[in-house]
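G., before I forget:
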Amino acid sequence: MIEVEVKARAQKDTADKIIGLGAVLLGTESHHDLYFNSPLRDFKDSDEALRIRIKEDGARLTYKGPKLDRKTKSRKELTVKIDDPLEMGAILSSLGFVLSAEVRKCRTKYSYDDVVIALDEVEGLGSFLELEARGEADWGLQAKKVLDLLKSLDLGESIRSSYLELLAEKLQDNAGI
Amino acid sequence: MIEVEVKARAQKDTADKIIGLGAVLLGTESHHDLYFNSPLRDFKDSDEALRIRIKEDGARLTYKGPKLDRKTKSRKELTVKIDDPLEMGAILSSLGFVLSAEVRKCRTKYSYDDVVIALDEVEGLGSFLELEARGEADWGLQAKKVLDLLKSLDLGESIRSSYLELLAEKLQDNAGI
């Protein structure tokens, strides 16, 4: 599965603009994400991610491969649903993986033209919009679709950094590094 | 969770002897086990195991730590239920783990005095009995309990090798190594 995804900082009127497009509200979710780093290679350098996400409907383990292009956040994504996130964390620790960060956010999801629009309130970072299309093929076309949608919502440049990277940057800024 | 486990080769009359003890038949299961090795350390040397088990009631990922004593197969065991064993295998591969073996067996389970008795028909290896007690504490007492039970079933020496190790030994024997 290839995930085609773009992200940008949201503005105060972004939710209204999404509704204005005719997008359908899918619901809201709270995410508690635990990120792990590998003992083999630093995932910051290899542009990979390993995450346990805990939300209302259960927990999942997700691996994300390196990004496939320079404009979007498209990448290979593999996910399994798990019944016990703490036990999964203990397995990863036993295998040498190290808990590197936690991210908490509230996500409001909309659907529009086969794209999932996620408006995120991220603890410590603020509001962001993520647009995501999924599929096995034609990811060039899907990338164009999400970039056009981003433009029609009057948002600025897309951000390729993950929340994990943005939080790390903020911590560095706060520490005056 | 500490798993206290002993194993021995089963004999033709072992099933009858288990019933004779007054053990309760719990049911039969088919197991398809996929074992993975770590890119960091050879699990054969470190005495660890990472396994995806697929059975009728779903799939699980299990990590087993090194054995804790010389008589039993007692060890730390961590398990999560997963909804998609193939996707889990793909995540492990992406993280550098390598599929090292597959084991298929039919297991008949009994319960007796808080011990689970498993009579296994292992593809390519034959019949074995595994006795397992679980708990957070008192594993010395539990180890005694399963060893006494093994004795009362008139079985020979306990085997500390896993099916994985026994299959590897058999392959080596067949190859005349």
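Chain B has a mean pLDDT of 90. Strands of chain B lie at 2-9, 24-37, 49-55, 58-67, 75-82, 98-112, 115-122, 126-135.

More on Monday.
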